[in-house]
Amino acid sequence: LVIVLDFGGQYNQLVARRVRECNVYCEIYSYKTDIEKIKAMNPKGIILTGGPNSCYEADSPTYSKELFELGVPVLGLCYGAQLMMHVLGGKVERADVREYGKTEVLIDKTQSKIFADVSPKTVCWMSHFDYISQVAPGFEISSHTKDCPCASAENEEKKLYAIQFHPEVLHTQEGTKMLYNFVRGVCQCSGDWRMDSFVEESIKAIREKVGDGKVLCALSGGVDSSVAAVMLSKAIGKQLTCVFVDHGLLRKNEGDEVEAVFGPDGPYDLNFIRVNAQERYYSKLAGVKEPEQKRKIIGEEFIRVFEEEAKKIGAVDFLVQGTIYPDVVESGLGGESAVIKSHHNVGGLPDCVDFKEIIEPLRDLFKDEVRKAGLEMGIPEYLVYRQPFPGPGLGIRIIGEVTAEKVKMVQDADAIYREEIANAGLDKTIGQYFAALTNMRSVGVMGDERTYDYAIALRAVNTVDFMTAEAAEIPYEVLSKVMSRIINEVRGVNRVMYDLTSKPPGTIEFE
Ligand code: XMP
Q1: Which protein residue's CA is at the shortest distance from atom 18 of ligand 1?
Q2: Per-residue pLDDT band at 336 (split at 50, 70, 90)
Q3: Domains in the chain, please, with CATH?
Q4: Which of 7, 119, 217, 235 could be 206's S-S partner, Cβ–Cβ 3.0 to 4.6 Å?
Q5: Which residues make Cβ contacts (< 8 Å) with residue 232, sequence separation at least 6?
Q6: What is the ipTM of this complex?
């Protein structure tokens, strides 16, 4: 185990992901975690993340000196590096020049364990306004840049390493190698954290835990709940019942696709219940325009429907949730940068079902690891690489009132958009993309007729963590083809626009 101590940096989850890519298991903990708890976990290494503060200010996050005296290798990154120096008697000050972006780093100590096989001049990602003006006693500078005399420093004997730049960010060209050198070289982690053994062990553990109990799963067809369901199915077969609520706000054909995979004709051993609740949802949503109210209705109705099904099934022993590691960190349980996206959770679900315990088989995995686990278990690629789809579905991609006609329009437009993005080979490179129906109608001309129809907005964003995002640059020919197909093939639409807004100030979804 490697512990990543989170000081509130924006890249903390990336650090953990990179470490796991070295086949080393790691977990993120807040910098407030007690030293005794850290000792008890017996880590092979500790990584201190970046953070937004200045370590010399009074109320900034800090850690006691003891952390560096455990005999466990410590790697400090950015704020973590400065803190290490500050706590151990070095000096950190505000720099004259702020370094930001790709920067050439010159390695002074080429025999440093951290820089094994790294080129003597290497491009790294910098983002700092403070700098290490004097290293702590026992440390030597191992690299520098044009503006920064200490880009990294180390006390080889005590296995303490400080790096001012961000090896976890892919812009640092040889960053993964440096992290590998730390966890596999310095910490001597064996690198046996592998997806196939994780899957195998999880299935075994679930089987033991569940015994002959009954398990209920709310299946949305999204990646997380699908992978969780398959894992459970492999562990306990028909003791698992999956309830799939088709709320009529899914993408085109999605309900049938989910049924094809998880239903009785699919490859998995489980009980599958599909509830066709489209009409129910549309009538509840009739006349409702306000976004939050729509979200609330959709969420509440889901609970109602699920509750009714659960009642038919009767008491169960376990309820499955597709919680993944970023959810755990974001809900404030793991790391420090606690941003709670309350509307992203399926609120209140456990309350309405009679069960004893929750099973969260993916709780320790990042999204890309969930995908790997899915592929490992033979789940079809198109399902595993499905992009994120919000719980309220198309309900928040139709601005204003939702009607069956509008759902059809946005479904058809979205299907065309997705097809053309895939044809252009962009489907795995763009973070998230979809069509939305604006509530705007405008005048157009088609054939020789005047039209007064709706405008579709195309959205495509690139993002690391979905908290910030930038509009993706899609080649004009692709957009143009999508536009012409939508206008020709989707009735009721006479205009197509591309949304250029980043997040912030926009959000990814429209409501
Ligand atoms: P926003 O619109 O907040 O979206 O920028 C960020 C990411 O979260 C997804 N999203 C949701 N997911 N339930 C979900 O499960 C929701 O209510 C919800 N709202 C937004 C959105 O698709 C994007 O990936």
Answers
A1: 390
A2: low
A3: 2-186 (3.40.50.880), 195-384 (3.40.50.620), 398-498 (3.30.300.10)
A4: 235
A5: 206, 215, 217, 240, 270, 320, 359, 361
A6: 0.98
